[in-house]
Amino acid sequence: MVMTDAVRDLAERLKDITEDAEFEAREIVREYCGNVLPFGEISEPQFARCTDAVKRRIGGEPLQYIFGHWEFYGLDFTIGEGVLIPRADTETVTELVIRHLKQHGGEYVDLCAGSGCIGIASAIYGNCRGYCVELSDVAAKYCAENIQKHKLNDRLTLIQGDIFDKAIIDRFADGSLTVVVSNPPYVTKEEMDKLQREVRREPSLALYGGEDGLDYYRRIFSAWKAKLKDGGLFAVETGDGQAQAVCELMRAEGFAPTVYKDLAGLDRAVAGLMR
């Protein structure tokens, strides 16, 4: 079977469960058959692996969990059940962190680190030393694996625990950090009830942010602001329609926040400098 016919066949099977059937079919072929030319041949065993992946996808597994890895900011991350899937939306806040680190140097901390995608990309492209704080045992395992995978053990330290635990916060001296960044849980109760089937496979600990999705934001700025240097950056990802409320919470803690849009033109990150 040639690649174009394989993609067409797989997309037809996927069309009832996703709006991106052709994209997913191409990703499956690429994963199990390599970068086959449009009219390159795919062997029967290769196509069998593709159809097995499609069956799992139809059963509700996210494509990223089926593959066991996913790309973020040009880097490959090992992931699986129990850790939040890295998304392109999160590259918005990551870019803010990297830009600030390149300009100012110093150290940073990534709170609610999950797979470590923000912290690892920041260490590599910001060329700085950093820390990842993650509560979940499973997510912390993936974070540690990804730190090892990208050979960052000498520059990136994983701390397992609650980001609001005083013992963890006190590990950092006041005024010691150039950046504090977080992609915290921010899905509202109403949104949790309407999540797509595959998103429900992701850990609720990394998704649910309380009734209005703002629970973490209400605590995170006051808990961590003292750790920033003068001129340090506090940057967070936000959900749809939350940016202005997060700005108010940040402003109340003495920051001058700015809203940043993602590639789709949606408000996706809020960042402010320590004054």
Written description of the protein model:
This protein is α/β, with parallel strands linked by helices. It contains eleven helices and nine strands. The chain has helices spanning 3-14, 21-33, 44-58, 63-67, 91-104, 117-126, 137-149, 166-169, 189-192, 215-224, 243-252; strands at residues 69-72, 75-78, 107-111, 129-134, 156-160, 177-182, 228-237, 256-261, 267-273. A seven-stranded mixed β-sheet has the order 5-4-3-6-7-9-8, sandwiched between helices. It has a two-stranded antiparallel sheet with strand order 1-2. A hairpin with a 2-residue loop joins β1 and β2 (75-78). The N and C termini lie far apart (62 Å).
Lay out the secondary structure.
Elements: H1 3-14, H2 21-33, H3 44-58, H4 63-67, E1 69-72, E2 75-78, H5 91-104, E3 107-111, H6 117-126, E4 129-134, H7 137-149, E5 156-160, H8 166-169, E6 177-182, H9 189-192, H10 215-224, E7 228-237, H11 243-252, E8 256-261, E9 267-273
Parallel strand pairs: 3-4, 3-6, 4-5, 6-7
Antiparallel strand pairs: 1-2, 7-9, 8-9
Helix pairs in contact: 1-2, 1-3, 2-3, 5-6
